[in-house]
Amino acid sequence: MHIARRSILGALAGTAALTAAGAPAAASGFAASRANGPTAASTTSGRPAAATTPPATASEAAAAALARLLPRHHGQVTFRTVPPRNGTDAFRVSGEEGAILVEGSTPAVQLTGFHWYLRHVAHAHFSWTGAQTDLPDRLPGVRTPLVRASNVTHRFVLNDTNDGYTGPYQGWAYWERELDVLALHGFNEVLVYAGADAVYHRTFIEHGYSDAEVRRWVPGPAHQPWWLLQNMSDFGGPVSRGLLDRRTALAQKIVRRLRELGMTPVLPGYFGTVPPGFPGREPGARVIPQGDWGGFARPDWLDPRTAAFGRVARTFYKVQQELYGATSMYKMDLLHEGGKPGDVPVGDAARAVEKALRAAHPGATWVILGWQDNPRREIIQAVDRSRMLILDGISDHYPNVTDREADWSGTPYAFGSIWNFGGHTALGANTRDWADLYERWRTKDGSALKGIALMPEAADNNPAALALFSDLPWTEGRVGLADWFRQWPHYRYGAADPQAVRAWDVLRRTAYGTTRADGWSEPADGLFGARPDLAVTRAASWSPKQLRYDAKEFDKALPHLLAVAPALRRSSAYRYDLLDVTRQTVSNRARLLLPRVKTAYDARDRSRFRDLTRQWLDWMTLLEQTVATDERHLLGRWIADARAWGSSAAERDRLEYDAVSLLTTWGPRDSANRGKLHDYANREWSGLVGGLYRLRWKTYFDELDAALAAGRKPKAIDWFALEDRWTRRHPGYSAKPTGDIVRIARKVANKL
Questions:
Q1: How many whole angstroms separate alpha carbon 159 and alpha carbon 367?
Q2: Reported pTM
């Protein structure tokens, strides 16, 4: 693979040299240098013909995307499709002022090339959080053509949990832009869980269940990812026929657009999840009860060795193909997070699951998550490893992960990161690990590293992490972090600015300077969102117990950001970053203040206790004001999105509860308390901070104060009862942002 990549880069560089010497724009030379490679419809890279688009349509697809993104400038850009060579995606960008030529192997790769140009020549960019598109009327020319080839085949994106934690009720307007942004960042494989509910619905109606029975079994959209992982069912439902139809239509638009862009939709495969009572509906069926997950009863698992499994799998893949077409990659996590094989040999089960996949889609790749003990060694040993891709979810998590070739017997894998769990708004990622491990693991002898896998549990956060991680496949050699973070604010805000560089250097050394040495891949979440306790160290049960960097050092970023030149403060990118740094600065106050509150309480110093708790609530007020300035930080927006999918008042209420409960109790009492799922998806959003979170801490502080006054022990508070009551009957919240983030950020900076 390295030899092939050097060859294509040499060919592209030769074309670049001709252009630089004054030769005509070398599209023909670029294509000719690769004329012996496969056609655009071939599949040496493991992607099927169905995932690519004929050249004429491909150019139109990239042009249409650019028209959506840059309506004033798109006419100045010409896209041209050239075939990949030996499975290597590549792009080349050249041209004069106002006439830019982008050549690439797919529409998505062409957009990646244009975005590379946009960042490094025009000093602008797009992200899933904020953009900077203040461009001159005529796009600047390219002095030296930009030439890049991907150093891996697979560039996978989105976590199984994404549809729950990012936006289960997002519509096509959101997804259209999201797919454009993912293409701009170089991804070519996108997990699509939307619409899977309709596949299961039709499948099990064909196997003896009524329409109503299946719809009761299917959870609400916010909770469906965990049903698709075989962790739970029912909660947040039942889903209506109308909702199923609308979600099907959305999923069809998503997969259609992915194919237009030359990207591969990764669809869920079938590995045996069945509704209750399945043996009574299907002759010869044998199920293995799966026990408990987080306080939920897991759905039964159909023994894959049985003829009944084969029949259900055939129906599943037939229905799925009728609705969404075939693809080349199917995601299945067999026995995920504590699944129980019972008396079924795991290797035999894996062979049967693979056999069913191959019967429906002979050339498909089985995609599986590398997480905890998944995939089990018995699975790896039983299947065709050359047609499996493992998405390593802990590449940057645990320091004892050092040899994936030995761990997975040479199975191809993607270097992955899960820097976010549950949609926490915490800022940061282990970028030092990415820079160190990716290139070292990829280039070592016998490496099985064939891709990247960007898998935060919720997307649309940490834009610097998105950009840096997605740069890995397009960068020659090891990424230099100091240089990368020095360049980032240049195109993030539109021009060089020394204060912006200083701010991002602080962030590089603090929030983005952590490593897996401490056994974590995510930043610590905020204590304002925790169930109150004077000794609490985290809000979610599986989050870090302490900040992974120096909070006082982090504070230095905010004054620098506020000092950025006024002309660079107009973009949504700057406003988002200012909000994020302000929010994190305020959030960190809780970890500094809570020990002092505890000391005052333990000393029974009521005056000091009341003063400190007032300070705590004042900081919460500032946090609420901070996040209220951005639409993406509004609980009201989340609720409005959910309610918009309902066709009756009852359904709208049900969908709202599905969406809001995911952020608060997560599930019923047993799951929230015994399963420890409460606040797993905590986030610093307007409506949560000023609503539930403030209510909890005010209730708690009032009780402690009353206990001090009366000289008694504080009474126990039933937190689930309070949370569930608020989740079901909370005040109304606005879906529109309010306030000025610059003014609020200055107020925060003055209080530090």
A1: 12
A2: 0.93
